Structure formats: C-alpha cells, structure tokens
Amino acid sequence: MVDILEKEGPIDIYWDNVGGEMLEAVIDASRINTRFIESGMISAYNSGNSFPIHNFGQIIGKSLSFHGFIVDHLREK
C-alpha cells in the first residue's frame, strides 16, 4: 500500500472507512491542507483493538483537516 501511495500521491483528499495502518500511511502521503473524511474505523471493529496512529503530529505540521461523517446526522428529524 505504501508503494502505491508513493507512486500515486501526494494525497489531497481522502475518504477513510478503514483507519489503522492505512490511515497512518495516508497521513504520511498527504499534502499540506489535505482533507480527511472519516466515516469508520473498520480495521478495529472485529479485533477490539485500536491501532495507535503514531504520526498524528502531522495534523498540525501539514495543516490537515479531519471531518467525521455519519449518515444519521444528515437525515431530517
């Protein structure tokens, strides 16, 4: 996955439903001001263990934006 990100990157916008190692790799491959849409963390659903993201400091260093996305929040009440 890292080799594909290096070949196709850098990333400008990323829709994430996986989390874990994949999210960490994409943060590394992201450009300054990349926008992240977070709709899940399936990599931790079945294992019960979350993967610690070691490069979260890049949120500040690269001015990354993370936005949660839950369908129920979009429905009219």
UniProtKB/TrEMBL annotation:
Report the Gene3D superfamilies cross-referenced here.
NAD(P)-binding Rossmann-like Domain
What molecular function terms (GO) are annotated for this protein?
A: oxidoreductase activity, acting on the CH-CH group of donors, NAD or NADP as acceptor
Q: What SUPFAM superfamilies is this protein classified in? A: NAD(P)-binding Rossmann-fold domains
**Listed InterPro entries:** MDR_fam, NAD(P)-bd_dom_sf
Q: PANTHER family of this UniProt entry? A: PROSTAGLANDIN REDUCTASE (PTHR43205), PROSTAGLANDIN REDUCTASE 1 (PTHR43205:SF7)
Protein name per its UniProtKB record: Alcohol dehydrogenase
What species is this protein from? Answer: Gymnopilus junonius
